[in-house]
């Protein structure tokens, strides 16, 4: 079903684009790009969601954040045991958690019942091949070929889990809800938006992809930022 929405004007950080109203906003990122998190925080403030779901949190962690919890980096870093999480510095994510004062929920943790997402059904051959090629590339072509199907299956399961957790927040708190996640989960062809469309086609989803000037996954809107200086992650495999 085609749905028409009024528009929200984005901040200059989002290049003056317009963002349509939707039930769920999936805001993608490259995890260590600070500019991407600035955009996410700005959009969360403007969308004013009822809840923000984070790929980086379990519900147990999210439950530690009460309405009275100060949402500064120092407080959240200790409260969430962030230093042990393996994610980039909490200073990148704290402004998103502080924007708008929404309920914070987690997308990680026990997956729950994902039977509605068709994870037991094989993908079309061409999609399976594309997904395996992507997994090989992001793992620096270091994975044995016979492991690639398992990595594809894991990604499918995470997309379904993130979709389920986001829909749970949507059903509990009402729209709009924001999901903060990596671009690989935000992509519209087979990521979280596609998983939501499979089980709840009446729920409108808008997906933002944020890149660093190169090729990006498909999304409803793509924004580019300067790349972060970082070592080549494939050096460890050479």
CATH architecture: 3-Layer(aba) Sandwich
The N- and C-terminal alpha carbons lie at a distance of 49 Å
Largest sheet: 6 strands, parallel
Which residue ranges are poorly predicted, with pLDDT under 50 across at least 5 consecutive positions? 1-7
Helix coverage percent of residues?
25-40%
How would you describe what is shown here?
The protein is of the alpha/beta class and 238 residues long. It has a single domain, classed as Rossmann fold (3-Layer(aba) Sandwich). The protein has helices at 34-47, 59-62, 73-79, 90-98, 125-138, 148-173, 183-186, 192-199; strands at 7-9, 18-20, 24-27, 51-58, 103-108, 177-180, 205-211, 221-224. The strands form two sheets. A six-stranded parallel beta sheet has the order 5-4-6-3-7-8, with helices on both faces. A two-stranded antiparallel sheet has the order 1-2. It is globular.
Question: What's the layout of helices and strands?
Answer:
Elements: E1 7-9, E2 18-20, E3 24-27, H1 34-47, E4 51-58, H2 59-62, H3 73-79, H4 90-98, E5 103-108, H5 125-138, H6 148-173, E6 177-180, H7 183-186, H8 192-199, E7 205-211, E8 221-224
Parallel strand pairs: 3-6, 3-7, 4-5, 4-6, 7-8
Antiparallel strand pairs: 1-2
Helix pairs in contact: 1-4, 3-4, 5-6, 6-8
Biased composition (Basic and acidic residues): 227-238
Domain Haem-binding uptake Tiki superfamily ChaN: 18-98, 118-195
Region (Disordered): 211-238
């Amino acid at each position: 079903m085609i749905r028409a929405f009024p528009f929200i004007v984005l901040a200059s950080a989002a290049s003056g684009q317009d963002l349509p109203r939707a039930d769920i906003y999936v805001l993608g990122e490259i995890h260590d790009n600070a500019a991407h998190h600035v955009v996410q925080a700005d959009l969360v403030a403007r969308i004013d969601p009822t809840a923000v779901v984070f790929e980086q949190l379990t519900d147990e962690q999210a439950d530690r954040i009460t309405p009275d919890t100060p949402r500064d980096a120092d407080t959240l870093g200790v409260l969430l045991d962030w230093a042990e999480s393996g994610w980039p510095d909490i200073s990148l994510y704290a402004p998103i958690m502080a924007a708008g004062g929404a309920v914070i929920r987690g997308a990680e943790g026990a997956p729950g019942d994902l039977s509605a997402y068709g994870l037991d059904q094989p993908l079309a051959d061409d999609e399976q091949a594309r997904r395996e090629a992507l997994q090989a590339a992001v793992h620096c072509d270091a994975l044995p070929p016979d492991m690639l199907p398992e990595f594809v299956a894991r990604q499918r399961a995470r997309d379904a889990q993130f979709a389920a957790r986001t829909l749970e927040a949507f059903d509990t708190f009402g729209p709009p809800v924001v999901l903060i996640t990596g671009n690989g989960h935000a992509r519209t062809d087979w990521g979280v938006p596609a998983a939501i469309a499979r089980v709840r086609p009446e729920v409108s989803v808008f997906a933002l992809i944020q890149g660093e000037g190169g090729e990006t996954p498909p999304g409803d809107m793509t924004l580019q930022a300067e790349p972060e200086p970082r070592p080549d992650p494939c050096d460890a495999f050479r």
